[in-house]
């Protein structure tokens, strides 16, 4: 990872002003365009020198020799991480619109999420993406043990999504001094029912990961042979079910983005972005479900230009955050637009909408 660029106050001010000016105009920024903002405190020559320094540090660049400067991906990164403050005005506005236009109590959750995506795209001018919620930790509805042949069982687990998982369990041979008869089907059936009852009583409504806390001694010594093999089988099932899977994504604002932003004027770029949104959602979903664990108080992940792992999106910025049921993240919101994005508005809109959806789920 590159060492963060350290800027003094003047350099920060010029970078911030350049970014803001370019976001508004979409035209390279010259020193004369910034003189009015700093006048009379700073001369045009001083601003040119600072812009030259920022260019040498890779934060600005000149698209043409005679043109002004344009922020690079690194310049936007410094702006987002060090200089920008999310807009409280944008947060209040989206909070008010969500309350006025959505009916969290009367509408289905799907309708609320779809409405939230439309509001986000309308207020921001960018593409909004909102996923349906999912349970990131599968919970158990029912377990059953069934004998399939001598010495082999099948453990069947029905999850809260009604998805069924199963695993074959090979039983160890009973010790030679054991009183158990391997040829007594009635005894085995009774023991399997006792085990099934035990597992249901302790795991129903909980995750398979809770198998680690089971006290198998409650069953008595005659069930010791089952404990280790079942513990391992349940752990294997838990690994299979713990990974989140992609889900439906509501997308809004594509036409408006293509119309409003000159960065999307090239047909080839538009086609590749549309392909990702329509046909490659399985690759897009993991990107917008991930929140920034290193963002401090800021709960968003901001991927700027070349930071995006998907090639068609490397001329864009993707901002994402998650909404929660209780303390568990169950869904996500994203915003896709040009790197020339109004970051302070976009981040405030996403965080406030995520709070609204989290509150809606908590009250349902």
From TrEMBL:
InterPro entries: GAF-like_dom_sf (IPR029016), HrcA (IPR002571), HrcA_C (IPR021153), WH-like_DNA-bd_sf (IPR036388), WH_DNA-bd_sf (IPR036390), WHTH_transcript_rep_HrcA_IDD (IPR023120)
Superkingdom to which the source organism belongs: Bacteria
Keyword Repressor annotated: yes
Signal peptide: none
Record key words, sorted: Repressor, Stress response, Transcription, Transcription regulation
GO molecular function: DNA binding
Domain Heat-inducible transcription repressor HrcA C-terminal: start-end pairs: 110-347
Biological process per Gene Ontology, one example term: negative regulation of DNA-templated transcription
Gene3D superfamilies hit by this protein: 3.30.450.40, Heat-inducible transcription repressor hrca homolog, domain 3, Winged helix-like DNA-binding domain superfamily/Winged helix DNA-binding domain
NCBIfam families, A to Z: hrcA (TIGR00331)
Purpose of the protein: Negative regulator of class I heat shock genes (grpE-dnaK-dnaJ and groELS operons). Prevents heat-shock induction of these operons.
Annotated family: Belongs to the HrcA family.
Name of the protein described by the UniProt record: Heat-inducible transcription repressor HrcA
Native source organism of the sequence: Thermoleptolyngbya sichuanensis A183
Gene, per the UniProt record: hrcA
């Amino acid at each position: 990872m590159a060492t963060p660029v350290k800027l003094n106050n003047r350099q920060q001010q010029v970078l911030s002003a350049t970014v803001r000016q370019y976001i508004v105009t979409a035209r390279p920024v010259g020193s004369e365009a910034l003189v009015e903002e700093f006048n009379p405190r700073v001369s045009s020559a001083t601003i040119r020198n600072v812009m030259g320094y920022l260019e040498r540090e890779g934060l600005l660049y000149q698209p043409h020799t005679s043109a002004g400067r344009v922020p690079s991906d690194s310049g936007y990164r410094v702006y987002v991480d060090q200089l920008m403050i999310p807009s409280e005005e944008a947060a209040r506005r989206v909070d008010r619109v969500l309350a006025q236009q959505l009916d969290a109590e009367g509408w289905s959750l799907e309708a609320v999420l779809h409405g939230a995506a439309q509001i986000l795209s309308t207020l921001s001018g960018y593409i909004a993406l909102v996923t349906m919620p999912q349970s990131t930790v599968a919970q158990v509805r029912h377990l059953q043990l069934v004998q399939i042949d001598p010495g082999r069982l099948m453990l069947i687990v029905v999850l809260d999504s009604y998805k069924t998982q199963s695993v074959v369990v090979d039983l160890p041979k009973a010790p030679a001094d054991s009183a158990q008869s391997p040829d007594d089907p009635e005894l085995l059936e009774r023991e399997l029912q006792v085990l099934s009852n035990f597992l249901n009583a302790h795991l129903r409504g909980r995750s398979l990961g809770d198998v680690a806390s089971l006290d198998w001694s409650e069953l008595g010594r005659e069930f010791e042979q089952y404990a280790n093999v079942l513990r391992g089988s349940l752990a294997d099932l838990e690994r299979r079910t713990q990974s989140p899977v992609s889900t439906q994504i509501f997308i809004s604002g594509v036409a408006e983005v293509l119309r409003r932003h000159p960065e999307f004027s090239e047909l080839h770029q538009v086609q590749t972005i549309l392909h990702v949104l329509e046909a490659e959602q399985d690759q897009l979903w993991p990107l917008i479900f991930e929140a920034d664990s290193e963002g401090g108080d800021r709960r968003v992940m901001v991927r700027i230009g070349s930071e995006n792992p998907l090639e068609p999106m490397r001329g864009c910025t993707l901002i994402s955050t998650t909404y929660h049921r209780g303390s568990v993240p169950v869904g996500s919101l994203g915003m896709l637009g040009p790197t020339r994005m109004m970051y302070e508005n976009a981040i405030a809109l996403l965080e406030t909408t995520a709070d609204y959806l989290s509150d809606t789920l908590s009250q349902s």
